[in-house]
Amino acid sequence: MTEVLEKINPPVRAVLEICALVSLGLVGFQFGPGLIGSLVFAALLPVAAAVAWAMFCSPKATMPLSLAGRITVEAVIFGCAAVGLALTGRLILGGLFAIVALLSGAFKHYIDG
After folding, report:
1. What is the C-alpha separation between 61 and 66, in angstroms, rounded?
2. Which chain regions cross the lipid bilayer (predicted)?
3. 64-102 per-position pLDDT tens digit
4. pTM summary value
């Protein structure tokens, strides 16, 4: 079973990362002030999350963190995406996203040590 999860988890994590970026864009658009503000927030929130991920959490991170640091950054990004989905009226989707992200992250960090 562990071997199957080891093969399934990386693509699941990739999909979660993309979903988090889309979610943050949706949140930025919905809660931005006015049309221009919404468009700016819709662009900046996912870009900020992607930059943070690339700098601290990706396999080729430019400033790799300790395990605790990576878990914190991942929790903030995925948590903001899940809460953002809930705040935009997608409560069930936000909850499902949070559960899958939590399980996938726990498995990843368990395997990575």
Report:
1. 12
2. 12-29, 35-55
3. 999 899 999 999 999 999 999 999 999 999 999 999 999
4. 0.89
Token pair in block for residue 3: 């071997």
**CA–CA separation, 28 and 23 (whole Å):** 9
The pLDDT score that the predictor gives to residue 102 is 95
Q: Furthest-apart CA pair in the chain: how many Å? A: 50
Domain extent, residue 20, equals 2-112
Which of 39, 13, 9 lies closest to 25, judged by CA? 39
Among 48, 65, 45, CA closest to 57? 65
Q: How many CB atoms lie within 10 A of CB 1?
A: 5
Residue type, 70: R
Predicted pLDDT at 113: 64
